[in-house]
Amino acid sequence: MEKIYGYKEKDVYALAEFIKEKGETSLSNVFEKFGALYGKAKGTVRNLYYAVAKKSNLDKEFCQKYLGGKPIKISKIEEFSKQDEKQLIKDILIKKNKGKSVRSIIMEMANGDAKTALRYQNKYRNAIKNNPELINEIILEINSQGEKVSIENNMHKKSIVSDAQFNKLKSEIDSLVEKISSKIKKENQYLKERINRLENENLKLISILYGSPNPTDARKFFSALKPKEFMH
Q1: Burial of 61 (0-12, 13-18, 19+ CB in 10 A)
Q2: Residue 48, class by beta-carbon neighbours within 10 Å (0-12 exposed, 13-18 middle, 19+ buried)?
Q3: Residues in contact with 109: Cβ distance below 8 Å, sequence separation at least 6, in sequence order
Q4: What SS3 string covers the chain?
Q5: Is the pTM of this model over 0.85?
Q6: Are 129 and 159 in contact (CB under 8 A)?
Q7: Pairing, β 3-4 against β 7-8
Q8: pLDDT by residue (tens digit) across 166-194?
């Protein structure tokens, strides 16, 4: 099967058709609804969308057929410089230390623009989660300027404790599952042995009753008995 920029051709065409049918709608809406319809993650659809956009700008025939001749325009995303990232996180930490929520701080910094706020939020969360060295550096810098900020550093430590607690819980669950499994095995073994004993006892009773461990027809056996041989 052919691929377009690493994506299945049928998926690219399907998303292009979907965009044309939906008309003017938010990208978030497109990603969510297309993902639900085709069983794809929102992030996967987002990447696929940019592949469609690139195709629409380079392939006039594709653009005409699937997008009514209107190529998808994508504004260039400006990357954060290291200094911009550091200043962003520093501003958030200082304002948060004064009692504001991270959400309100970011919306204020983004001047209410949802896309910009999302970029700021993702950059902030990524740094808090994956770059403790940068966070510590920023906190030391803030503290040296007379501010006292430590809560985010503690937050990072809490995430480590949380991971340790998770691993401990996982270990306890695995141990419990192993114990239950062992108990079930023992019970199964006991039941097998019990069934074997019952089968042996059943064979003995059959031999006593029919004179053979391989009974034939019960009706024939009883019909062969004389009246006086029946128990009253």
Answers
A1: exposed
A2: buried
A3: 88, 91, 92, 117, 120
A4: CCEECCEEHHHHHHHHHHHHHHCCCCHHHHHHHHHHHHCCCHHHHHHHHHHHHHHHHHCHHHHHHHHCCCCCCCCCCCCCCHHHHHHHHHHHHHHHHCCCCHHHHHHHHCCCCHHHHHHHHHHHHHHHHHCHHHHHHHHHHHHHCCCCCCHHHHHHHHHHHHHHHHHHHHHHHHHHHHHHHHHHHHHHHHHHHHHHHHHHHHHHHHHHHHCCCCCCCHHHHHHCCCHHHCCC
A5: no
A6: yes
A7: antiparallel
A8: 566 667 777 777 777 777 878 878 888 88
Question: How high is the mean pLDDT of the chain?
Answer: 76
Let me know: does 93 contact 139? Beta carbons within 8 Å.
yes
pLDDT in tens, 200-222: 887 777 777 666 656 555 555 55
Handedness of CA 212, 217, 223, 229 (dihedral sign): positive
Count the residues in the chain.
Answer: 232
Does residue 172 contact residue 113 with C-beta atoms inside 8 Å? no
Please work out, in degrees rounded to the nearest 5, the angle formed at the alpha carbon of residue 26 by the alpha carbons of 101 and 46.
85
Handedness of CA 87, 89, 90, 91 (dihedral sign): positive
For residue range 60-70, what is the model confidence (pLDDT) as tens digits?
888 888 788 88
- Determine the Cα–Cα distance for residues 183 and 180; give it in Å rounded to an integer: 5
Copy the structure tokens of residue 141.
Answer: 């810098």
